[in-house]
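Standup notes
- DV: blocked on the single-chain target, sequence here:
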Amino acid sequence: MTRIGIILGSTRPGRNGEQVARWVYEHASQRTDATFEIIDLLDYPLPHFDEPISPLMGQYKNDHTKAWAAKIASYDGFVMVTPEYNHSTSGVLKNAIDYLFAEWNNKAFGVVSYGGVGGARAAEHLRLIGGELKLADVRTNVALSMFTDFVDFTKLNASDYQVATLTTMLDEIVAWSGALAHLRQAS
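- DV (later): unblocked, structure below
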């Protein structure tokens, strides 16, 4: 069965990302074509990148890196839930991504972003980063506006349109994860 990790890309106190990740999980877990799990970066407290050798080599020294690598390696694809901070993704998500290389390769991912303009710029940055890591980004992006998809900027109230967009994105991630399986097996 295809395994998809929903990466919660914010660790900020009072983060909106937790309810967004749970919303994604609630909808995704109704599917029968894949299994889904939330990966909360709070559970993987990675310091600023501290490996002495490039992740390209896969020679991890630190136990926190080894645990993170094992977690990411166990999935076939990802949904990255990201806020938009200063026209980009969160530092904690970028740091977690930078720790690894091969564990990301030949897997599909999609983005659920949120912010003043739906987190669109954060999603675009993640697409650029993903390309370098041999992650295949799907076309559909769920972009939740703090003005229209949240009540008082704090309580998620996603529209039916956003639910339909999420379904399309999950369809794409599951299909692409399956299509890339032969590349993951070859490596």
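- Follow-up: Residues 29 and 69 are 24 Å apart (CA to CA).
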